[in-house]
């Protein structure tokens, strides 16, 4: 008579003892195959070999999903990903708005992590982060704050690796640390999204970044080829005239005595003042030497304290007046595929695009 039993070597299978030996029960086999096709859990009971406890599969699956979800939420290096790299911006506060038009949502959607890898957009993003740090940090949602500090972390690591424009990042961290100190000291008086301990940890991280940048040492590269000092004077002078920041001119002038001589040229600083400021502003802050000559270099830094200098970026965000969309314009795609960077419905899209400065970006979200 056939014997129906459970084999200890194969839990979950029913076996039948016949004259030819042990065989698996076909009805049980078909049932388990159907369960395997229906879900990934093939058994109704999981045995824990360490402590012998029995867990229900549904509870085990729920706990596993919950751990993954909690890990995703707590992962500070995780940034929200969006397929579209543009966002609607509606100035009117109506119930029929499409999508979101908050500063935090725009910061999440516009792919700043990729933008900092582009040297044309790097200074633009840093300036934008600096403006947010000064006045708009509390306007960001919790997710936007996480993205903000993730991008800031990538910027700092990039500067530590390639030594690109550390002075700009130092200014950003200084403004951010000052803002955080004020917010933490005045907790309860201002709206601060998130736990106070998180903000204290962020401030400690910023202080550590500042110390790393302070200890940054520029490695001297050994190059047997042509160097900057080998260039003729007129070419070196032409390079200095391309700079729009006075501090960059001073920094380059410290490289060699020849560059220092060229960086002190009065005509160079005069051109720089004329580029950034108006003639009426010159008269209000006129600085003369003992011989009666205008000290253009001193005037530049004096005017910079009273008036905003003209900003210059390799690439900026653009705003489409026809579609009310804020986006990055990819010039390579525009030339190759006539792709404007967003689904524009205008007959002549280029005529509708307006470059957006970092301050203009902030102003777009002030109602």
Automatic annotation (TrEMBL):
Domain of life, per lineage: Eukaryota
Originating organism: Chlorocebus sabaeus (Green monkey)
Cell compartments where the protein resides: Nucleus
CDD domains in the cross-refs: F-box_FBXO25
One Gene Ontology term, aspect cellular component: nucleus
Biochemical pathway: Protein modification; protein ubiquitination
One GO process term, biological-process aspect: protein ubiquitination
Key words of the record: Nucleus, Ubl conjugation pathway
Purpose: Substrate-recognition component of the SCF (SKP1-CUL1-F-box protein)-type E3 ubiquitin ligase complex. May play a role in accumulation of expanded polyglutamine (polyQ) protein huntingtin (HTT).
InterPro entries: F-box-like_dom_sf, FBX25/32
Listed name of the protein: F-box only protein 25
């Amino acid at each position: 008579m056939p014997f129906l039993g459970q084999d200890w070597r194969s839990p979950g299978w029913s076996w039948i003892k016949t004259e030819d030996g042990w065989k698996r029960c076909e009805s049980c086999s078909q049932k388990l195959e159907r369960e395997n096709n229906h879900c990934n859990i093939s058994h109704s009971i999981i045995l824990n070999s360490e402590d012998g406890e029995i867990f229900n599969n549904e509870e085990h699956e729920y706990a596993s999903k919950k751990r993954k979800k909690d890990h995703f939420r707590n992962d500070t290096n995780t940034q929200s990903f969006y397929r579209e790299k543009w966002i609607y911006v509606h100035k009117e506060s109506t119930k029929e708005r499409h999508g979101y038009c908050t500063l935090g949502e725009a910061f999440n959607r516009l792919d700043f992590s990729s933008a900092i890898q582009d040297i044309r957009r790097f200074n633009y993003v840093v300036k934008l982060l600096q403006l947010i740090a000064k006045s708009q940090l509390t306007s960001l949602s919790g997710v936007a704050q996480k993205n903000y500090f993730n991008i800031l972390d990538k910027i700092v690591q990039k500067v530590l690796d390639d030594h690109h424009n550390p002075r700009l990042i130092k200014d950003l961290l200084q403004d951010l640390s000052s803002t955080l100190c004020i917010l933490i000291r005045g907790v309860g008086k201002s709206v601060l999204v998130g736990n106070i301990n998180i903000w204290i940890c962020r401030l400690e991280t910023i202080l550590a970044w500042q110390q790393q940048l302070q200890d940054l040492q520029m490695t001297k590269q050994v190059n047997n080829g042509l160097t900057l000092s080998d260039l003729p004077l007129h070419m070196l002078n032409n390079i200095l005239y391309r700079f729009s920041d006075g501090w960059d001119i001073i920094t380059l002038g410290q490289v060699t005595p020849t560059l220092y001589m060229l960086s002190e040229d009065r005509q160079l600083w005069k051109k720089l003042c004329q580029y950034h400021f108006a003639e009426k502003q010159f008269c209000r802050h006129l600085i003369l030497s003992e011989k009666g000559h205008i000290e253009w270099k001193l005037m530049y830094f004096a005017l910079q304290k009273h008036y905003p200098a003209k900003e210059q970026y390799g690439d900026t965000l653009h705003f489409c007046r026809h579609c009310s969309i804020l986006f990055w314009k990819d010039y390579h795609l525009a030339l190759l595929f006539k792709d404007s960077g967003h689904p524009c419905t205008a007959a002549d899209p280029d005529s509708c695009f307006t470059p957006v400065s970092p301050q203009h970006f902030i102003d777009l979200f002030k109602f």
